[in-house]
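Q&A log
Question type: sequence-to-structure
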Amino acid sequence: MDLAERVDRLSKVALFAGLTRPALELIAKIAAEETLSLGTLIFEHGQPGDKLYVILEGRVRISRNVPGMGEEALAILGPGAVFGEMALIDAAPRSADARVHERCRLLALPKDGFEDLLFLQKDLAYEVLWSFVRMLTVRLRETNDKLTFLSVTGKFE
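Response status: OK
Response body:
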Protein backbone atom coordinates (compact mmCIF):
# COMPACT_ATOMS: atom_id res chain seq x y z
CA MET A 1 0.00 0.00 0.00
CA ASP A 2 1.47 3.33 -0.99
CA LEU A 3 1.49 6.52 1.07
CA ALA A 4 -1.51 8.05 -0.73
CA GLU A 5 -3.66 4.99 -0.01
CA ARG A 6 -2.59 4.97 3.65
CA VAL A 7 -3.53 8.64 3.93
CA ASP A 8 -6.91 7.95 2.32
CA ARG A 9 -7.60 5.06 4.71
CA LEU A 10 -6.51 7.03 7.79
CA SER A 11 -8.73 9.97 6.81
CA LYS A 12 -11.76 7.68 7.13
CA VAL A 13 -10.88 6.53 10.66
CA ALA A 14 -12.75 8.46 13.36
CA LEU A 15 -9.59 9.01 15.40
CA PHE A 16 -7.90 10.80 12.49
CA ALA A 17 -10.92 12.30 10.70
CA GLY A 18 -10.61 16.04 10.30
CA LEU A 19 -6.81 16.08 10.26
CA THR A 20 -5.16 17.90 7.38
CA ARG A 21 -3.59 15.93 4.55
CA PRO A 22 -0.03 16.90 5.64
CA ALA A 23 -0.82 15.69 9.18
CA LEU A 24 -2.21 12.41 7.84
CA GLU A 25 0.90 11.98 5.69
CA LEU A 26 3.12 12.29 8.77
CA ILE A 27 1.10 9.59 10.53
CA ALA A 28 0.99 7.38 7.43
CA LYS A 29 4.78 7.51 7.11
CA ILE A 30 5.28 5.82 10.50
CA ALA A 31 2.57 3.19 9.93
CA ALA A 32 3.39 -0.35 8.83
CA GLU A 33 0.93 -2.68 7.14
CA GLU A 34 0.40 -6.15 8.62
CA THR A 35 -1.62 -8.99 7.08
CA LEU A 36 -2.71 -11.65 9.57
CA SER A 37 -4.56 -14.95 9.24
CA LEU A 38 -7.53 -16.26 11.20
CA GLY A 39 -6.75 -17.04 14.83
CA THR A 40 -3.48 -15.11 15.00
CA LEU A 41 -2.85 -13.59 18.43
CA ILE A 42 -2.04 -9.91 17.88
CA PHE A 43 -1.34 -9.18 21.53
CA GLU A 44 -2.09 -10.71 24.90
CA HIS A 45 -3.37 -9.31 28.18
CA GLY A 46 -0.42 -8.28 30.34
CA GLN A 47 2.05 -7.75 27.50
CA PRO A 48 3.70 -4.36 27.10
CA GLY A 49 1.80 -2.18 24.65
CA ASP A 50 3.91 -0.89 21.80
CA LYS A 51 1.47 -0.25 18.93
CA LEU A 52 -1.92 1.15 18.03
CA TYR A 53 -3.76 -0.70 15.26
CA VAL A 54 -6.22 0.42 12.59
CA ILE A 55 -8.26 -2.32 10.90
CA LEU A 56 -8.21 -1.93 7.12
CA GLU A 57 -9.96 -5.22 6.29
CA GLY A 58 -11.30 -8.14 8.31
CA ARG A 59 -12.26 -8.37 11.96
CA VAL A 60 -10.48 -8.55 15.32
CA ARG A 61 -11.86 -10.01 18.56
CA ILE A 62 -10.96 -8.22 21.77
CA SER A 63 -11.38 -10.52 24.76
CA ARG A 64 -10.36 -11.19 28.32
CA ASN A 65 -9.90 -14.47 30.13
CA VAL A 66 -12.20 -14.52 33.19
CA PRO A 67 -11.08 -16.94 35.93
CA GLY A 68 -13.57 -19.77 36.29
CA MET A 69 -15.49 -18.71 33.19
CA GLY A 70 -13.02 -18.75 30.30
CA GLU A 71 -12.72 -16.25 27.48
CA GLU A 72 -15.19 -13.36 27.44
CA ALA A 73 -15.44 -11.43 24.17
CA LEU A 74 -15.52 -7.71 24.85
CA ALA A 75 -15.85 -6.58 21.24
CA ILE A 76 -15.54 -7.70 17.66
CA LEU A 77 -14.14 -4.84 15.61
CA GLY A 78 -14.26 -4.30 11.86
CA PRO A 79 -12.76 -2.04 9.20
CA GLY A 80 -12.04 1.50 10.37
CA ALA A 81 -11.88 0.52 14.04
CA VAL A 82 -8.90 1.39 16.21
CA PHE A 83 -7.61 -0.83 19.01
CA GLY A 84 -4.58 -0.94 21.25
CA GLU A 85 -4.79 2.83 21.68
CA MET A 86 -4.37 2.69 25.45
CA ALA A 87 -0.73 1.68 24.84
CA LEU A 88 -0.11 5.13 23.40
CA ILE A 89 -1.58 6.88 26.41
CA ASP A 90 0.07 5.12 29.33
CA ALA A 91 2.82 2.63 30.09
CA ALA A 92 0.47 0.01 31.56
CA PRO A 93 0.43 -3.49 30.04
CA ARG A 94 -2.27 -4.57 27.58
CA SER A 95 -5.68 -4.79 29.26
CA ALA A 96 -7.10 -7.51 26.98
CA ASP A 97 -6.24 -10.01 24.25
CA ALA A 98 -6.61 -9.16 20.56
CA ARG A 99 -6.98 -12.05 18.09
CA VAL A 100 -7.78 -12.15 14.38
CA HIS A 101 -11.45 -13.12 14.07
CA GLU A 102 -11.46 -12.90 10.28
CA ARG A 103 -8.32 -12.63 8.11
CA CYS A 104 -7.29 -9.01 8.28
CA ARG A 105 -5.04 -6.23 7.12
CA LEU A 106 -3.97 -3.75 9.74
CA LEU A 107 -2.02 -0.53 9.91
CA ALA A 108 0.23 -0.59 12.97
CA LEU A 109 1.45 2.67 14.48
CA PRO A 110 4.45 2.14 16.77
CA LYS A 111 4.30 3.88 20.13
CA ASP A 112 7.83 5.32 19.90
CA GLY A 113 7.33 6.75 16.42
CA PHE A 114 3.91 8.15 17.31
CA GLU A 115 5.20 9.80 20.50
CA ASP A 116 8.14 11.31 18.60
CA LEU A 117 5.78 12.66 15.95
CA LEU A 118 3.44 14.23 18.52
CA PHE A 119 6.38 15.73 20.41
CA LEU A 120 7.63 17.45 17.26
CA GLN A 121 4.22 18.42 15.86
CA LYS A 122 2.37 20.20 18.69
CA ASP A 123 -0.68 21.17 16.62
CA LEU A 124 -1.05 17.58 15.46
CA ALA A 125 -0.64 16.38 19.06
CA TYR A 126 -3.46 18.67 20.18
CA GLU A 127 -5.84 17.42 17.48
CA VAL A 128 -5.00 13.74 17.95
CA LEU A 129 -5.23 13.88 21.74
CA TRP A 130 -8.65 15.55 21.54
CA SER A 131 -9.73 12.78 19.18
CA PHE A 132 -8.50 10.25 21.74
CA VAL A 133 -10.52 11.99 24.44
CA ARG A 134 -13.68 11.91 22.31
CA MET A 135 -13.18 8.24 21.40
CA LEU A 136 -12.52 7.20 24.99
CA THR A 137 -15.51 9.22 26.21
CA VAL A 138 -17.77 7.30 23.82
CA ARG A 139 -16.34 4.01 25.06
CA LEU A 140 -16.78 5.07 28.69
CA ARG A 141 -20.44 5.95 28.06
CA GLU A 142 -20.98 2.56 26.40
CA THR A 143 -19.37 0.83 29.38
CA ASN A 144 -21.59 2.80 31.77
CA ASP A 145 -24.66 1.71 29.80
CA LYS A 146 -23.56 -1.93 29.93
CA LEU A 147 -22.90 -1.77 33.66
CA THR A 148 -26.29 -0.17 34.25
CA PHE A 149 -27.98 -2.90 32.22
CA LEU A 150 -26.14 -5.66 34.08
CA SER A 151 -26.95 -4.07 37.43
CA VAL A 152 -30.65 -3.66 36.62
CA THR A 153 -31.04 -7.18 35.24
CA GLY A 154 -29.27 -8.69 38.24
CA LYS A 155 -26.46 -10.14 36.14
CA PHE A 156 -23.88 -8.01 37.87
CA GLU A 157 -23.21 -7.76 41.56
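Response note: The beta strands are 32-36, 41-43, 51-66, 70-77, 82-83, 97-110.
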